Amino acid sequence: MTTLLKLDQIFLLTGLALLIVAGLTYRDRSNPRRYSSGLFWALWAAIYLIGDLLPPAVVGVLVVMLALLGGLGGVSRGQHPTREPAERQADAAALGNKLFLPILTITLLTLAGSLTLKDVHLGDLLLVETKNVTLISVGLGALAGLAGALWMTRERPMQAVREARRLLETMGPAVILPQMLATLGLLFTDAGVGRAVAHLTTSNIPVDNAWFAVTAYALGMALFTMVMGNAFAAFPVMTAGIGIPILLGMHHGNAATMAAIGMFCGYCGTLMTPMAANFNIIPAALLELKDKNAVIRAQWPTALVLLGVNIVLLRFLMF
Amino acid sequence: MSADVSLWPLIGVAVVIVGFVLRFNPVLVVAAAGIATGLAAKLPLDLILAKLGSGFVKTRNLPLTLLLPLPIIGLLERHGLRERAQAWIAGIRSATAGRLLVIYLFIRETAAAMGLTSLGGHAPMVRPLVAPMTEAAAEKTHGPVPQAVRDKWKAMAAATDNVGLFFGEDIFVAFGSIVLMQTFLAENGVVTDPLHIALWGIPTAVAAFVIHAARLIRLDRRLPQDIARARAEENQA
């Protein structure tokens, strides 16, 4: 069966936009490192455009180049001509709450699309690739919102790319961190990091005491998540290591309670680790915060108190 | 558990921890950790590169929710989006920075609990709307706010989005992680009902809301002292 809208098309669009960003950066004389910065964005564009056509080892070389360019100061930003605050104030007054509409468009179309576009057929044609309905809906929402924003502000499409470039340069090379970390997570799994961590956390625990057993499971979930950056990777390891043999087997706990609260212990770990870059590091860059760990600093007290609450909840709700 | 588990792969974990603690560039730290992990697992270099490459291609979907809204947000910011958001919040008399974030936390968490996880997010909501509104609410009641305090509240806005999303999504019964848990348990001979997993998440979800909201209200009360302290530090510098 053929499919009309696929994630590959969004990758293509993203790659083309990044390629234009690379070209603009290459020509930007206000950027002190315009060649290496341009190369960085061009390499990232290439991974979106032809990443799945190249041999994996070649992509690996590109990734190492990205890391070296991004990590050794090869990526810098140019000056972006901004409009006067008075001009923006005037536009804000003239456009009023209409300014919020394009953003609401992304959000509402994403919601509507992910709820309604699953398994929609036009004759023999599948409208949207089933497993990527949400991301494709984000793409459709973004295109519709962009059309609205261009119409409302009477700007040319090129200005939208320039503005995207301004925001990308604000974030800098940190934008590739989520992908780098997810890749590292896959490598960790292949290399047996999970087995090693489970071995360390599950040996030498006085497991016949329910408090100790519950605490070991909760802290293990949080710590393992902090290492891997992802609670989904921690759950199978900790549950096979402590959850099933000890909490269920020895102490006869309720499995649904253990799973629900155990996963939340992992989420507490996610709030405290730079490994979860897309939640913790990217927003710090996006909000132009000086301290790149500012978001973790803001949320660790919530995470720690909640982890304590979870241990108590597990102890009393599970048995 | 067998005794012959190799602990060598943990060298990658050590690289990450040491790198982050010593504040080396995170992109470099992660690349180094990947290569170290591969070498510790005795993989040949071309296989390590291939794993890096295929992993990076496989995870291309991750940055999309960040990248796709950027052109719209940039364009609207150029035409006064922040200014409009700030003027709007300044017109609401009872708005404070803390109360605003408590309301956002409530909306984000309940929406996620109903499966509406895309309502919110750092790129489409926090940067263009929630963070500027929080700043404006703080300035409305306390006058000009020093940069250090401003940054603290912006970070809190991002943190509030995370807390609301995480502890809401997992009590939606059709969410991926519940399927993952149920499938894993079933493979190991433990039968659970997805609905029960979702329901047993509710006490933690409520606790997350109470704890984070209490911190926001407390931060709200401490705002005058925080501003005074930041001003004193600025004057000393």
Structural write-up:
The complex is a heterodimer of chains A (319) and B (237). Chain A is mainly alpha-helical and 319 residues long. Chain A contains 15 helices and three strands. Among the domains of chain A are: 85-154, no CATH class; 192-317, no CATH class. Chain A has helices at residues 7-26, 34-50, 56-71, 85-95, 101-116, 133-153, 157-171, 177-191, 193-202, 210-228, 231-250, 255-270, 277-280, 282-286, 294-317, and strands at residues 3-5, 121-122, 125-128. In chain A, strands 1-3-2 form a three-stranded mixed beta sheet. In chain A, strand 2 (121-122) and strand 3 (125-128) form a beta hairpin. The longest helix of chain A has 24 residues, at 294-317. Chain A is globular. Chain B has 237 residues and is an all-alpha fold. Chain B has 13 helices and no strands. The model of chain B has no long low-confidence stretch (mean pLDDT 91). Chain B has helices spanning 10-21, 26-40, 45-58, 64-67, 70-78, 81-90, 97-113, 122-142, 147-169, 176-187, 194-200, 202-221, 223-236. Chain B starts with 9 loop residues before the first helix and ends with a helix. At the A-B interface, helix 1, helix 3, helix 4, helix 5 and helix 6 of A face helix 1, helix 2, helix 3, helix 4 and helix 5 of B.
Helix/strand class of chain A: mainly alpha
The total of helices of chain A stands at 15
Largest interface: A-B, 148 and 117 residues
**Fraction in helix of chain A:** over 70%
End-to-end CA span of chain B: 57 Å
Give the integer mean of the pLDDT values of chain B: 91
How many distinct folded domains of chain B? Answer: 2
Widest sheet: strand ordering of chain A: 1-3-2
**Estimated radius of gyration of chain A:** 24 Å
Gyration radius over CA of chain B? 23 Å
The helix content of chain B, as a percent range, equals: over 70%
How would you describe the shape of chain B?
Answer: globular
- End-to-end CA span of chain A: 50 Å
Number of distinct beta strands of chain B: 0
Poorly predicted runs of 5 or more residues of chain A: none
